[in-house]
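Below is a filled-in request sheet from our internal design queue. Each sheet records the structural input a requester submitted and the sequence that came back. We keep these sheets so that new team members can see what a complete request looks like end to end.

REQUESTER: design group, bay 2
PRIORITY: normal
MODE: inverse folding
CHAIN LENGTH: 308
BACKBONE (tokenized):
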């Protein structure tokens, strides 16, 4: 259905509100009190209403003001219409998770998916069984561009930069641990700094570099480790460490997870660990999307309940 702009030129929304209050109160003075305006203003509005609808609308009688049949018809039609307008303007839209059918597109590095999404997905299955989730791979340097291209709705990663249009919320801070395979690299005791620099390393890096913040910490001590293999995927590490006697430094939450399910051994990093901050981020145009607001709450709750 289309609307004709010309039909509304003589109509003031406040005039229709005044009409409905007059119909409810059947009194100019009481309507003025409810509207917080003077009686002359209400009488003037009634005159304009009579001219607009070419009908007396409310007629003075000994018992008070009585509506005409035209006024009763208008009230029955206008009241639900203005209630809908009021709801659209002033009541926030609600997201009915239990009955919603929607696909959310998220993006995050693969290790974040391993750490976070099992809890998120389990909660979505419990609260919103018809919701679908598509998770894409991203890294700290691609997130903003993916949002701008509308390739995702919500991201979780470390954020080296935050454009002005980006909204974000910190989720967790964590350090690093070192991992090795039980059968591949046998250590006599706890991992020492000498062990750390004596064995080759596998490094996850998104830009192909053979150094990270850990190497800068080692350089401050006059030390250097042997990074012999780099990859962009944390998921490649278990298979690599199973075949090669090497070490890898990964976020502590991932090391804890792999020590449980991948037969990998997690070691405390034998030097002060740099920390990373994981953030949830989205585009400002989606700031008030009720469905995405709800999803952000689920992700935040899952991140706070997950060991970091």
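RETURNED SEQUENCE:
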């Amino acid at each position: 259905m289309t609307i004709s702009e010309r039909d509304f030129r003589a109509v003031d929304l406040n005039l229709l509100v005044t009409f409905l209050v007059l119909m409810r109160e059947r009194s100019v003075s009481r309507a003025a009190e409810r509207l917080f305006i003077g009686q002359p203003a209400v009488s003037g509005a009634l005159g304009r209403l009579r001219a607009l609808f070419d009908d007396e609308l409310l007629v003075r009688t000994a018992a008070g003001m009585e509506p005409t049949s035209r006024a009763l018809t208008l009230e029955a039609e206008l009241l639900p219409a203005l209630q809908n307008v009021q709801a659209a303007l002033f009541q926030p839209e609600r997201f009915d998770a239990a009955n919603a059918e929607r696909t959310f597109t998220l993006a995050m590095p693969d290790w974040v998916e391993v750490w976070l999404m099992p809890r998120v997905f389990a909660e979505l299955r419990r609260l919103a069984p018809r919701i679908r989730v598509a998770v894409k791979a991203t890294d700290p340097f691609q997130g903003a561009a993916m949002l701008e291209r509308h390739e995702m709705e919500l991201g979780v990663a470390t954020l080296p930069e935050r454009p002005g249009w980006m909204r974000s919320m910190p989720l967790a801070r964590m350090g690093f641990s070192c991992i090795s395979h039980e059968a591949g690299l046998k250590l006599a005791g706890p991992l020492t700094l000498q062990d750390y620099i004596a064995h080759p390393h596998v490094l996850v890096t998104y830009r192909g570099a053979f150094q990270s913040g850990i190497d800068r910490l080692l350089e401050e001590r006059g030390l250097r480790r042997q990074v012999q293999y780099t990859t962009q995927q944390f998921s490649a590490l278990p298979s690599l460490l199973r075949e090669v006697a090497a070490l890898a430094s990964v976020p502590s939450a991932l090391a804890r997870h792999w020590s449980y399910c991948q037969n990998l051994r997690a070691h405390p990093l034998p030097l002060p660990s740099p920390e990373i901050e994981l953030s949830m981020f989205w585009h400002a145009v989606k700031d008030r999307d009720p469905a995405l607001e709800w999803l952000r709450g689920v992700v935040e709750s899952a991140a706070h309940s997950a060991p970091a």
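SHEET NOTES:
- Residues 103-173+277-305 form a domain with the D-Maltodextrin-Binding Protein; domain 2 fold (CATH 3.40.190.10).
- The first strand starts at residue 58 and ends at 61.
FILED BY: M.R.
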